[in-house]
Amino acid sequence: MNAIDLVESRYVKPDMPVLLVGDTVKVHINIVEGGKKRIQVFEGLVIAKKGGGSRETFTVRKISSGVGVEKVFPLYSPMIARLEVVRHGDVRRAKLYYLRDRVGTARNVKEKREAK
Questions:
Q1: pTM passes above 0.90
Q2: CATH number of the domain enclosing 61
Q3: NCBIfam families from the xrefs (predicted)?
Q4: 116 CB contacts (<8 Å, ≥6 apart)?
Q5: Rounded Cα–Cα distance for residues 16 and 83 (Å)
Q6: How far is residue 41 CA from its own chain's centroid?
Q7: Which of 42, 71, 75, 80 gives 56 a disulfide partner, CB atoms 3.0 to 4.6 angstroms apart?
Q8: Whole domain around residue 32: which residue ranges?
Q9: Would you say residue 93 lies in a domain?
Q10: What is the DSSP string of the chain?
Q11: Is residue 41 assigned to a domain?
Q12: Res 11: pLDDT
């Protein structure tokens, strides 16, 4: 282990769920407005993951009022209060950028079935 990995290992949260591209997730974000703090939920599809260790990020895309909205979240950010995986998607790509051009039911991702 090199020196950078030793320093970064302090910031990695062990209780984070396994997050894969194609998953539908709910990201609970701490928002500070003025003196008030609240939690806002951003639910969408994980279309990309990038980086590794404490620098890992993931991109979540959702449709809000007919407009596509994407946010990039650092996986181990202190601003993330909780991360829930709603469903696992069955995809064969590491990046799902092609979904940006899809409309309607073509935008849907099949759900991964459990092996019996």
A1: no
A2: 2.30.30.790
A3: rplS_bact
A4: none
A5: 7
A6: 12
A7: 75
A8: 3-101
A9: yes
A10: --HHHHHHTTT--TTPPP--TT-EEEEEEEEEETTEEEEEEEEEEEEEEE--GGG-EEEEEEEETTEEEEEEEETT-TTEEEEEEEE-B--S-S--GGGGG--GGGG--PBPPPP-
A11: yes
A12: 81
- pLDDT at residue 4, as a whole number: 84
Tokens of 113: 């079935």
CB-based contact 48:58 (threshold 8 Å) = yes
Question: C-alpha dihedral over 16, 20, 26, 28, to 10 degrees?
Answer: 40
Question: Would you state the pLDDT for residue 116?
Answer: 67
As for how many domains the chain has, the answer is: 1
Q: How confident is the model at residue 53 (pLDDT cuts 50, 70, 90)?
A: confident
Find where tokens 């991702």 sit: 109
Query: Which of 7-16, 27-36, 105-114 has the largest mean confidence?
Result: 27-36
* Rounded Cα gap, residues 5 and 99, in angstroms: 34
**Residue 86 pLDDT > 90:** yes
Residue 16: the pLDDT is: 86
Q: Which of 102, 93, 46, 52 is closest to 71 using CA atoms? A: 46
